[in-house]
Design goal:
With about 425 residues, the chain is mainly β. Helix content is about 10%, strand content about 35%. The chain has three helices and 28 strands. The longest helix has 13 residues. The radius of gyration is 21 Å and the shape is globular. The relative contact order is 0.16.
Length: about 425
C-alpha cells in the first residue's frame, strides 16, 4: 500500500473519533501546508500507523442553531452578477447528471489507454490537460495528456518532465490546475530552474531559465506566466515570465500564485488569503488587489462571512476562479477548510463577492472526505462553476440556485487543468 492510499484511509478511519482539544489546533496547523507532497520514508508511515492507534481526529463541537440550508427551487435564477441571498448548500447524496462536451462522462476516461502522440498530430485547442498520479517510488512523473475539442486525446511526447522540488527535497507532481493559457493553445509547467511552455497546437516547446525551486504557475495573459518559487522557510518569490522572449522579471507586488485569482490581463490581480481564528502572527482573511509594479495592494477588503454564520471558511487551499467575460466578473470561488454548526475542519467550497468581500454562498461537501479533496477548475457559465471532488469526480455547482450535477462520475486519479472557453 502506498503512502497516498494510507493517508486517505487514515482520514476516513478517524472521521468519527473524538479527540482531545489539541486536535483542533493540529488540524489548523496542518492546513497551512500548501504542497501536496510525496512522503516515502518509513518513519512517516510508522507515525501514521501510530496516529490510527491513538485515534487523533477533528473534534465535534456543539454550535449555535444551524443556519437555514438552501435547497434548489424552480423560481427564476438571479442575475449572473449575483449568486442570490447568502446561502449554504449541501452536497446531495445522489446528484443529477449533466453533460458538458467534450469532457468525458467518467473520471476513469481521464487516464486514456490509447492516445496519439502530440508530435504526430497536435490538438486544435486544449479543453483539459491531465497528469495521472505516479507511483510513490516513481523517479519521474507520468506524461501529460491533452483533451482536444473533438474529444480525442494526445500524449505530450515532446518534453520529459521532472517532479517539482522545494529546499527540503520534497517533490510534487508538476502539472497545476492553472496551467492552460487563456487561448487554450499553451500549457505552462514549472520545473526546477526553468519554466516550460508547450504549444499544444504545434507541439513546439519553449524553455525559459528561472533559477530556483519553481512550483506554481498562473497565466496573466497569453504572453505572460506568473511563476511562484519556494525560497525556503515558507518564503516565496513571484516572477512574470515572457515565454516568447525567454525572460523572467521579479514582480514588485508582494503576492503569491499560491493564493492568486486568474484575472483579465488589463485588470488588477486578485489574491484571496489569510485565515479565520488565526494563531498569533498569521494574516486575517482578506481579498487583495495588486498591480504587479506596486509594492502595496491597491485595494484590500476583509472577507465577511457573518451572513452565513455559524457556517464559514477558516482557511483557503488550492486554486481560485473568477467568473465573467475574460475573468472580470464579481464572483470568486475557492475551496477551503471550514466549519458547520457541529464540526470544524470540514471541506467546503465558497463564493466571495469581489466588490464587497462578502461570503455569498457555501457548499458543504459533507463527511468522509480526503483532506484538500476538492477544487474549482473553471466556470461553465456566469453562474455555474465546475468543481473536482475526491468522490463524485467532476461536478457543476450553480451558485444562483444551489443545484449540483455530476459531469464526470468517479474520482480523477491525477492532476487536471480544464479550460472550457
Amino acid at each position: 500500500m502506498g503512502t497516498r492510499e494510507l493517508a486517505e484511509l487514515l482520514d476516513q478511519a478517524s472521521a468519527d473519533v473524538r479527540a482531545p482539544a489539541l486536535a483542533e489546533a493540529a488540524w489548523a496547523r496542518a492546513g497551512r501546508v500548501h504542497r501536496r507532497r510525496r512522503i516515502v520514508t518509513g518513519v512517516a508511515a510508522a507515525v501514521a500507523v501510530c496516529a490510527v492507534a491513538v485515534g487523533v481526529a477533528v473534534p465535534l463541537r456543539a454550535g449555535p442553531r444551524p443556519h437555514p440550508v438552501a435547497t434548489p427551487s424552480s423560481s427564476p435564477a438571479p442575475s449572473a452578477a449575483s449568486p442570490g441571498p447568502p446561502s449554504v448548500d449541501q452536497m446531495p447524496r445522489q446528484p443529477g447528471r449533466r453533460t458538458i462536451g467534450p469532457l468525458p462522462a467518467t473520471g476513469a476516461a481521464f487516464r486514456p489507454a490509447e492516445a496519439r502522440k502530440l508530435s504526430q498530430r497536435p490538438v486544435r485547442q486544449a479543453v483539459a490537460v491531465v497528469e495521472p498520479h505516479s507511483a510513490d517510488d516513481a523517479t519521474r512523473p507520468e506524461p501529460l495528456y491533452v483533451l482536444d475539442t473533438d474529444g480525442s486525446w494526445a500524449r505530450v511526447d515532446v518534453v520529459d518532465l521532472a517532479f517539482t522540488r522545494d529546499e527540503g527535497n520534497n517533490t510534487a507532481d508538476p502539472l497545476r490546475p492553472t496551467a492552460v493559457s487563456p487561448d487554450r493553445r499553451l500549457v505552462a509547467v514549472a520545473q526546477t530552474d526553468e519554466l516550460i511552455v508547450v504549444d499544444v497546437t504545434t507541439a513546439a516547446v519553449y524553455r525559459t531559465p528561472l533559477p530556483g525551486y519553481n512550483e506554481q504557475v498562473m497565466w496573466r495573459s497569453n504572453d505572460t506566466v506568473l511563476v511562484t518559487r519556494d525560497d525556503g522557510e515558507q518564503a516565496t518569490a513571484t516572477f512574470a515570465v515572457d515565454w516568447r522572449a525567454r525572460t523572467a522579471t521579479r514582480v514588485t507586488a508582494g503576492l503569491s500564485v499560491w493564493n492568486t485569482v486568474v484575472s483579465r490581463p488589463d485588470g488588477p490581480v486578485l489574491e484571496l488569503r489569510g485565515v479565520i481564528g488565526a494563531e498569533a502572527g498569521d494574516e486575517p482573511m482578506v481579498l487583495k488587489e495588486w498591480q504587479l509594479d506596486r509594492a502595496a495592494p491597491v485595494r484590500e477588503v476583509p472577507v465577511d462571512g457573518r451572513a452565513l454564520a455559524p457556517y464559514g471558511v477558516d482557511e483557503w487551499y488550492g486554486p481560485a476562479v473568477r467568473n465573467g467575460a475574460d475573468a472580470g466578473g464579481d464572483l470568486v470561488v475557492r475551496a477551503g477548510w471550514g466549519r458547520t454548526p457541529t464540526r470544524q475542519g470540514v471541506e467546503v467550497v465558497a463564493v466571495v463577492d469581489v466588490r464587497t468581500g462578502e461570503l455569498r454562498r457555501l457548499l458543504d461537501l459533507g463527511r468522509d472526505r480526503v483532506k484538500g479533496c476538492c477544487q474549482p477548475l473553471d466556470w461553465v457559465d456566469e453562474h455555474t462553476v465546475l468543481l473536482r471532488t475526491d468522490q463524485e469526480g467532476l461536478i457543476a455547482w450553480d451558485v444562483s440556485t444551489g443545484a449540483v450535477s455530476v459531469v464526470s462520475t468517479g474520482p480523477l486519479l491525477g492532476i487536471v487543468a480544464i479550460a472550457l472557453h
